[in-house]
Structures are given as C-alpha cells and as structure tokens.
C-alpha cells in the first residue's frame, strides 16, 4: 500500500496529576478518537494521496515494433491496417495495430516482460505525428495485470509525456505519466521506444 | 484552487489560568477546530478514498453483439469496418464498431438498460485477442450518464479484467474494473458477454 | 497548487502556568503532531480532494473541423479514413482522424491555443451518433501539456458530457468533464464545437 504512516510515539502522552485526571482522560479519549478517525480515513480506506515528486512506482521499459511488410509474417509485431490517404506527405490517416514485445533492456531478443497491445495513427499534415493508445499486458510470475497509455505522441520531439489512465491486477486503478523517447529507427522496418514509466497512484 | 480552508479560530489556543476552565475551554475549541478541519478535508470537499475490498457500486450486466453479415441490417448491432489483412489466422487487423444493447439478464430481448458504444480490434498472430474501448451509455429514468471501459481483452481466458477509466452524469469521474466473461458464442453471428462491474471511485 | 493551507499563527501556543506545564507540554506535542500529520496528509503529499461544485480549472474553448474533400488539402484539418459501409443511413462505420485548431473564441482564424488530435467514428443505425477520443495539445508560452477527452458523443443532443480521463504537463493527472455543444455546422465541410471544460482534479 501507499501509506505506511508511523505514529508510534505520539500516543503515550498526557501524563496528568490527580488534579487533572478527569480532564486529561477526556482529552485523551478525544485525541484517541482523532487518531482512529484519521487512521480510518487515511489507511484502511486508503485515502488517495499523490506526490508528483515521488512516483509510487518508477521503471523503464523498451518496446519493439517490427512492421509487417508482407514478407516477414514470422517476425512482424505490428501492421498497417488502414493506408494513408494522401493528405500531405506525412502518412496522415495511416492506422497501425500492434502486439509488441516489451523488454527491460534494449535487446529485441531479450525475454519480454510484457506485451504492448494497441494502435496508433498518423494525424498531421505538416510533420510525422501520431496519436496512440497502448495497453501494457503483464502475465508473468513477477507481474500480472495491465495499464493503459493514451495520448498524442509528437514523435519528432526527443521526449514526450503520455498519460497513463488506468490499470488492472498489479496495476489496478493506477495512473501516471509515461515518457517516450525513440531509441532507434531502422527505416520502415523497426523502431524501439524507451518508456520511462512513473506511476503516481498505486493500490497494489 | 480547490481548497480554501479557513482555520481562523485555531490560533488563540491554550492559555491556562490557575483554574483549568479556560484551558479546557480552549482545548475543546481546538479539538472542535480539528474536527471541523478534518471534516472539511474529508467530507465537504470529498477527499478521495478507495477501498478495493468494497466497491462503491457493484452490478452485473450483459452485452449482446449481433454481427452484421449483409443480410441482417435490421438486427445487426455491430459491424466489421476494416477487414483482417492475412497476418496469421486470428483476424489480426480486423476492426469492429458497435452499438450493442446491454441488459440486466441474459435475454437478448429484455429491455436494454444501456447501450455499449465503441470499437474493438484483433491484434494477435497466435490466438484470438482483442483490444477494446467501450462506453456504456445510460439514458433511462433510473440512470443517466456514461462510463468507459478500455483495455486488452484476451478473450480465450475465462475471465479478464478491464479498466474503467472515467464517466459522466450518474457515473461522473468514476473508475474501477470490469470483469468480462463470455456467456455465449454463436459462430460469427452472435456473442454475449457478462460484465461484472466494480466501481471503486464514485461521486454520485 | 491546489492547496493553500494557511496555518501561520498556530505555532505560538500554549502559555501555561507552572502547575500545568507538563500536561500542557504533552498536549501541545500531541497537537503539533496532529498539525504536522494533517499537513503531511493534506499538503506535501497532496491528498486528493474533489469538489464537484467547484472545478479547480474551468474554461471554454472552440474546436474547428474542416473536412478534407480532395480539393481542400491546404485548409483541411480532418479526413475520413474509413468510409461508411451502408448499414443504415447515418454513416455507421465511418472513421475520421483529425488535427483540429482550438481557439478561445469562435473565429476560425484566431490564433489557436491548442490542437485537438484524435479520431471519431459513427456507430448508430438510427441516428447520427459518434464515439470520440480527442487529446488537446497545448504548446504555447502560456500552457504546455495535454489532456484527453473520450466518450460517446450523441451529437443530436444540444449538450453532451464527455469524460476527461488524464493529462500531462500543466494538466498532469487531471480529470473532469467536457460539455460539447455544436456551435455551427456547414454541411459536410465545416463544424465548430464549443467545449465547456471543467477539471475537478488538478495537480498543477
């Protein structure tokens, strides 16, 4: 859980003399009520707290996209499903669906820790720009669950922040930001993205 | 800003006289201020609390999908809009748009309580697997509003959890998890899904 | 920031007589612990508070959509990428991708304050109805960041609420509701929507 509030020392207070017994008793009861009340608020029911300076989870992953070119069915991990329509020269209207391997290092051949499933499309006349929806699907002994990234992806910029909008399993109800940077582009065939994932809302 | 908490009275505290009356009075005022303060924090402004053991709303619905086959325009509730491209044999690239009736029981002919509007597509070479975005639209005397489900849907698994990422009206700002299970599949023509809906964040 | 907690005077407390020194000292320690505890809860870690009666940000924008018709490549801001399939007469299955200018007034020629990037599709047999996913991308000296709107858009209704599900930069982790109303429709060529944007969760 996100909250491990320690209040060990703050309870053995209020040493009172005989004179003050009754009043101190009342006060201590009141304070105890407070403690319990605030604890109930904050811990059992998990009051939501966000600290943008300290993600509750932070990790880096790499996503590998091998585009289908009619000859590489065995290796392809994504494919164009709608072709660009010729509005400008930056692929406006092209839609790509993918099921990409996700690894902890940059090696395409490393054992994937997740799949990235989703789609993106090109939507600008004046430059290469995509809009992307992408769910990371974890299904290993270490992690089970999903979270979904969705945002504009102005891919000509060195880094771009995309929203993480929800999740399930180990990532139930999570939210945060994923910073994309392009590791490598090999023509139309292959690209690799670095994902710097910062979750600010965690319940597992 | 969201919080304009005023704590005017909480400053003149704990001046004690030779009797305890004044001090006790001040302490009680302080404690009351605390109560009010915490209440303001937690209630009026609705401090967000999540209890994963106890959804704030929990209900089960069934979604009915009748695929358009060129001969059933009157009954069809969904249609393929982009055909699979032949990458593998599991419909990779096929996109389906739908406006499906949603009922409280399994009967297709029951009065719908909502429509499920959205799309899904197949995105795996090795098995049937979809990615889905689906908004439940309620527009009855009982419920008005929407919420949106979005996630990978590994449909060969008996149950799969999908994120609920937001809503409007009766479901404003809601979040949670929807567990899909396949009730029934009738070839390419019809399928029915059970949706076990657990909302953990509710404001209405 | 969202929290402007003022507690300036709350430290110079606890003037006590000799009799009550110890007890008052203990009480003051306790109260200070409380203050610190509540401050930690509410301020540093930014306990999440939602007030549906008072958005943390509220503004109105206008989105302009110029449909591509093969002859207006210079002006077009959106294009059909998948044609309707003929299920009914309300464009079922038509998919549109856009990169639309967003202005603070209704004038198409005003300097855009953002771009609206995303897609929508028609999904009903019985009336014009769309489902939309749309990211507002701000990249000016005033605002940098994004937020994403996603929901059903029953466009024949005078107003409709759509979920705002997340954001980045100036709008990091934001959520809320965007009320669409149609300002103007000029045949198939142009439409303008008014967006009444209410953010209920803000961290910047």
Automatic annotation (TrEMBL), chains A, B, C:
<comment type="function">
    <text>Dirigent proteins impart stereoselectivity on the phenoxy radical-coupling reaction, yielding optically active lignans from two molecules of coniferyl alcohol in the biosynthesis of lignans, flavonolignans, and alkaloids and thus plays a central role in plant secondary metabolism.</text>
</comment>
<comment type="similarity">
    <text>Belongs to the plant dirigent protein family.</text>
</comment>
<dbReference type="GO" id="GO:0009699">
    <property type="term" value="P:phenylpropanoid biosynthetic process"/>
</dbReference>
<dbReference type="InterPro" id="IPR044859">
    <property type="entry name" value="Allene_oxi_cyc_Dirigent"/>
</dbReference>
<dbReference type="Pfam" id="PF03018">
    <property type="entry name" value="Dirigent"/>
</dbReference>
<dbReference type="InterPro" id="IPR004265">
    <property type="entry name" value="Dirigent"/>
</dbReference>
<protein>
    <recommendedName>
        <fullName>Dirigent protein</fullName>
    </recommendedName>
</protein>
<comment type="subunit">
    <text>Homodimer.</text>
</comment>
<keyword id="KW-0964">Secreted</keyword>
<keyword id="KW-0052">Apoplast</keyword>
<dbReference type="GO" id="GO:0048046">
    <property type="term" value="C:apoplast"/>
</dbReference>
């Amino acid at each position: 859980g996100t909250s491990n509030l320690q209040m060990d020392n703050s309870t053995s207070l209020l040493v009172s003399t005989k004179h003050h017994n009754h009043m101190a008793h009342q006060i201590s009861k009141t304070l105890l009520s407070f403690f319990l009340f605030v604890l109930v608020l904050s811990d059992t029911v998990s009051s939501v707290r966000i600290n943008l300076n300290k993600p509750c989870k932070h990790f880096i992953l790499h996503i590998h996209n091998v585009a289908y070119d009619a000859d590489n069915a065995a290796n392809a991990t994504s494919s164009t499903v709608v072709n660009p329509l010729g509005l400008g020269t930056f692929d406006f209207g092209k839609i790509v669906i993918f099921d990409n391997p996700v690894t902890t290092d940059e090696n395409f051949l490393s054992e994937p820790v997740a799949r990235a499933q989703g789609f993106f499309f090109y939507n600008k006349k004046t430059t290469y720009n995509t809009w992307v929806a992408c769910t990371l699907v974890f299904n290993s002994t270490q992690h089970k669950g999903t979270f979904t990234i969705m945002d504009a992806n102005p891919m000509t910029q060195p880094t771009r922040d995309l929203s993480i909008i929800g999740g399930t399993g180990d990532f139930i109800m999570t939210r945060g930001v994923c910073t994309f940077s392009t590791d490598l582009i090999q023509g139309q065939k292959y690209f690799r993205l670095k994902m710097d994932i910062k979750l600010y809302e965690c319940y597992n």
